[in-house]
Amino acid sequence: MQTTIKRSLLSLLFGGLGIGITEFVMMGLLEDIAQDLGIDIPTAGHLIAAYAMGVVIGAPLLVVIAGKYPAKRILLGLMVLFTLFNAFTAFAPDYYSLLISRVLAGLPHGAFFGVGSVVASRLAKPGKEAQAISIMFAGLTIANLIGVPLGTYIGHHFIWRYSFAIVVLVGILTLLSLKLWMPDMPAKQAGSVKTQLRFFRRQEAWLIIGMIAIGTGGLFSWYSYISPLMTKVAGFSESSMTYILMLAGVGMFIGNLLGGRLADLVSPAKASLILLSAMAAALVTQQYVSVYPIPSLIMTFILGSIAFALSAPIQMLMINTAKGSEMLAASVSQASFNIGNALGAFLGGLPIAMGYGYSSPEWVGAAMAAFGALFALAFILHQVRQNRITHSAELHTHRATVEIIEDEAEPVF
């Protein structure tokens, strides 16, 4: 049984690897794509936004449509779409067809991670759910560590379309592993779509969404501008950026696994609060040490670790809170991550445009991470209040029951 679980989680890791490559490799290929298609780099940058738009649209939509089917069938269907749409990207003849292909390629992203998170938690041993989810997200970290640098190198030295051919191959590998290794599990989607959507009437849902969309925006405020920060402020050469990004990828890989352990140890909500607070402090530290090469490298590793340590705790928090709507809620958390991506990149760029320098996004990121920590704290306090109300109601019911029993037992003279 243990071997089956390990293989099942490995198939989810392969899916995370493919998704991670297609999402992040575009950032390193913009110049090559712009030159090939005869467009400028800002126009090519719309391809990144198009993918994020696809994630935000597809995450809840595809889960709602497919929610009644068994999890294995949903994952296979999503990976078929992912593979086909990335093949479309590899063969897109012009800019507009490429733009459409990026929207389509983003559609299965959030749904796969949403369904995969629930599946991983169901496959895990009790108390190890967050660690199982972190194995799936390890695919994203491996993508940043190996897949994205490899895809960028291929795009620079050969043809950028080959990078997306690699994504297609990873998609096919994921399909085969899901078919062979993922056990059949019955559909577990309680209630109608209308019933599931009621979760988003609850305060807890919006506290988590705010925590993700604003808090993780702190990461992207830093990571979106890491290249000019390290070359123009810390003084590294442009040729060093591949290795610096790989260092960040090592931190992401290690932090992702540690984040799952932390969530299982202290609870997902407390882990999120700790990590978002640590991210705010680390971003402030990075701002102050950014002119020093070695401390900047150390903080790059630390920030990468903290950033991806958040993945499993936040996903587990959403699943635990959304009983009966787990897949939908987990997919929405992925959409929220991409909102954080857009917010962090946009807000982080404002102080640069105002002339405050390439280390100024760290202040914006620290503020966003701090606000995310406040959302996490508000969630914890809300849970404490709800537990007190529930406990009080149970105590009142118990006392009333005891009084009734005593009245019935009282002798009549």
Structure description:
It contains 16 helices and no strands. It is globular and about 80 Å long. The chain is 85% helix and 0% strand. 52% of the residues are buried. It has 413 residues and is mainly α. The model has no long low-confidence stretch (mean pLDDT 84). It has helices at residues 2-37, 41-66, 71-91, 95-123, 129-157, 160-181, 193-197, 203-215, 217-223, 226-233, 241-266, 268-289, 293-309, 311-321, 326-353, 361-409.
Kindly list the characteristics that best describe this protein.
413 residues; mainly alpha; 0% strand; globular
Quick rundown:
With about 425 residues, the protein is mainly α. It is built from 16 helices and no strands.
